[in-house]
Write a structure and sequence with these properties.
The protein is of the alpha/beta class and 305 residues long. It folds into 2 domains: 62 residues, no CATH class; 229 residues, Rossmann fold (3-Layer(aba) Sandwich). Helices cover 41% and strands 19% of the residues. The protein is built from 10 helices and 10 strands. The strands form 2 sheets. Strands 3-2-1-4-7-9-8-10 form an 8-stranded mixed β-sheet, with helices on both faces. α5 links the parallel β1 and β2.
């Protein structure tokens, strides 16, 4: 077996040997492995991506048994696309800092960090205690420098400004109106959209010139009632791109997603460049993907000149 298969087999065998939820067993198995690294004999040099993929397979099996909507993972295809955009736009020279305010089990953040060519550290926020423990254990197994915070990400965060945010945003309504009142995107009536607040909160913690890479509903900026988020990104000169993900990634098109690219203006006199709007082709279409990458490369080259 290769590394990914060995890792998955370890987690799967352990989960089936104990009572309780599969998800809880994954956390227990990670802690056992951290306490005793010799539990798994892996080929040297160990590839962190293969370990991540093995753990991801176990987590996907656990998620199928979970009835909780927030127990979902960002697919690797989306993670790799965001990683590609990050590597195109974020300067890898120097120590780069990332934030994921809705990290879940960490799959998206870890995919991006494993692809990033430079030195990077990250902060990760999650309100679910089981998910954040799994994410922290996985980060330790992958030897990734991530600091974790168990809290509501819409409340003030104990972190410094970062170079980039990457996050698959939770969609729905935010229940605490008192906290939401501190946000421009608080609804005039009723509860605020949680994904609106996550975007506003995230960009508060991005350095001038830094980026936000968000997985959002495809109709975020075009749906009925989208005027507040449109006004927000326009007023703050944030919008840089919107990349519609392939239809085949979503069984139900009502839940189709896009990658929203925002940037904090680097200076007060910053002139907002052209916004790149693109439909990402089917991932199996090599010629179309090559054309898409060429388009992005041309856009980032023009933008950085």
């Amino acid at each position: 077996m290769n590394t990914m298969e060995k890792v998955f087999s370890y987690y799967d065998n352990y989960a089936q040997s104990v009572d309780g939820l599969y998800l809880d067993a994954i956390l227990e198995a990670s802690e056992r492995w951290l306490d005793k690294p010799s539990l798994l004999e892996l080929e040297s040099p160990v590839q962190p991506e293969e370990i991540r993929k093995g753990i991801q397979l176990a987590l996907l099996k656990a998620m199928k048994q979970s009835a909780q909507a927030h127990h979902q993972m960002t697919p690797d295809s989306i993670g790799y696309l965001i990683g590609y955009l990050v590597n195109k736009l974020v300067d890898s020279k120097g120590a780069i800092t990332f934030l994921d305010p809705a990290v879940g089990t960490g799959n998206l953040l870890f995919t991006v960090l494993n692809q990033f060519p430079g030195e990077a550290t990250a902060s990760a926020v999650e309100i679910d205690d089981v998910l954040i423990q799994i994410a922290a254990a996985t980060a330790n197994l992958l030897e990734l420098p991530v600091s974790f915070y168990l809290q509501d990400a819409i409340r003030p965060l104990p972190i410094d400004l970062v170079d980039a945010v990457v996050s698959d945003l939770p969609v729905g309504y935010y229940p605490d109106d008192e906290v939401a009142m501190d946000y421009e995107l608080m609804a005039k009536e009723g509860h605020a959209f949680s994904h609106y607040l996550y975007i506003e909160q995230s960009m508060r913690y991005v350095k001038p010139g830094g980026y936000g890479f968000f997985v959002v509903p495809s109709r975020l900026l075009t749906a009925e009632g989208a005027e507040p988020i449109l006004a927000y990104v326009k007023e703050h000169r944030l919008l840089r791109g919107l990349f519609e993900l392939p239809d085949t990634l979503f069984a139900d098109q009502r839940f189709a997603k896009s990658i929203l690219l925002l940037q904090q203006p680097p200076t007060e006199k910053f002139v907002q460049p052209d916004v790149l709007l693109a439909k990402i082709p089917e991932l199996g279409n090599a010629a179309a993907m090559q054309s898409f990458f060429k388009k992005v490369n041309s856009w980032t080259t023009d933008k950085n000149e």
